[in-house]
Amino acid sequence: MMNARDSTGTAGRMPVVLASAVVLAKTGRLRLALRILGFSMLAVLALFAGGFGWFADKVSHMTTPLNPAKADAIIVLTGGQSRLDAAMELLATRKGERLLISGVHPSASRRQLQAAMGGDKQLFSCCVDIDRAALDTIGNAEESAKWVESHAYGSVILVTNNYHMPRSLLEMGRLLHGARLEPYPVVNTNLGNGGWLTKPEALRVLLTEYSKYVLALARGILPLRPSAEGITLAEASVAKDEKPGPIIP
To answer: For the chain, what is the mean pLDDT?
Structure first.
């Protein structure tokens, strides 16, 4: 039979035992949560790395079409002289009726742009439209969609660098519902056969562009950036030199 002293000692130890059990339970749950968090982070990193490998391989195998099919129009996204030269060559060979240069700096005049691109001055004057409103790829897509819709074009050749093409097609495809996009990737550096792995600068560019591509995919699920309203429409080609042209209706 338990005497009074034993009963008192047991009663004194019970709160300590219960407190220890509570602490152990909380510690166990914390360890489990940290373990799950660690596995989740590893899974995300593995998914990101695998996606980057796919992206880099896809981009590095893109080639510039030797003889692209004709389309109603051509759109080039600014970002390098080679893009502009390629777009102007497509226009000169009548691969499209008109050319939109999207993302031109507001301070650049038509005369300066034509001089930088060279080519036929008359062709530039009659068949080139300039968009100065777009500030990024999303803006390129918004302004291009307005231009395509205003002309009722059914097919468009899209000119940009190979590494920029996946994100450009993604953003354009969201807005140009009635037009078929024909990619025309401009390749400045041969990255085939894993060449991008040995070129630090190319690796940096690809990783940066892939990160932006992932964010662009996420925008399809979460509204990370609402579309701006009241953006100025593309400038018409009838504008003369530095004078602003009429707004396309």
So the answer is: 79
